Protein: Oxidoreductase
Organism: Intrasporangium chromatireducens Q5-1
Amino acid sequence: MQAVLMRTFGEADVLRAESVADPEARAGWATVRLKAAALNWHDVLVRQGRYGSPLPHVIGADGAGVRVDTGEEVVVLPSLWWGDDESAPGPDFEILGDHRWGTYAELVRVPVDCLAPRPAGLSWDEAAALPLVGVTTYRGLFSRGRLRRGESLLVLGAGGGVATMAVSLASGVGARVVVTSSSPEKIAQAKGLGAAGGVLYTEDDWPDQARALSPGGAGFDLVLDSVGTWRDSLRCLRHGGRLVVLGASRSDSVVLEPRPFYFGQYELIGTTMGSPRDFAGLLALMDGNDIVPPPISATYPLDAAADAHRFLEAGAGFGKVVLTQP
């Protein structure tokens, strides 16, 4: 099979298409002939060596294709061996593409319980773009964040995969959604997914501007923070609100004042990825509501994975970047 093989860690040019052996059959596992594989920022971190992946290595967590043994059209859940405790992943948990070869290939082998039918109405590109950001966002908003119809939500960073998914899911179930972005164009695109409005986080007073867009200016019920700006996020919450944290793309450390935090009765909730049960909840939610499919920012052929990574890292796109198969 053809695969994008990484023989060393580094910049995007370490990703090169090569011919490698097909995955071998294994009890309890299935091989999927991929139609598309979506990129995630997590892939960039794996490429940089942040997760100590074995070399040579094929990265990639997201994919959709045809199950070789049955002919079923499936999507791949990249959350492996979550465990029996829904509150947090168990000690054997890993993400597909971290230590086992992932989806930047014509074929991928995964545990059978990590496959689900391709959702009706989604193209191959949209289906491939769904699993990681979908299950991560569903868990953050609903399993952990307890978002309900009629509540208000602030989503930080309008253009990324999690952010665009959050706008689609939350607005689809009847929440009022506001976004932040560095670009008026991305705010306009977020409105196309169901957001009520947005503010530019490049302006110093953006938390005040965002709060002014919350119901009655009292603050949001929930803030979804994938960037790590907790202090500013807390300023956007109503008293008793919930801050859900699932990333740290702009900050590796945070200093919080304890008294305003506990007097505000805030909740700080950490989350990442999601379980098979979360994924089933996501698919059921999409089936029962008018949810906008994941927006696709750009597509590249498999052998142009390095170019796809450069596009992703430039941050100019809105939505997901996808590798397609002929």
Q: What stands out?
A: The CA atoms of residues 230 and 237 lie 11 Å apart. The first strand starts at residue 2 and ends at 6. The radius of gyration is 19 Å. Residues 131-144 form the longest helix (14 residues).
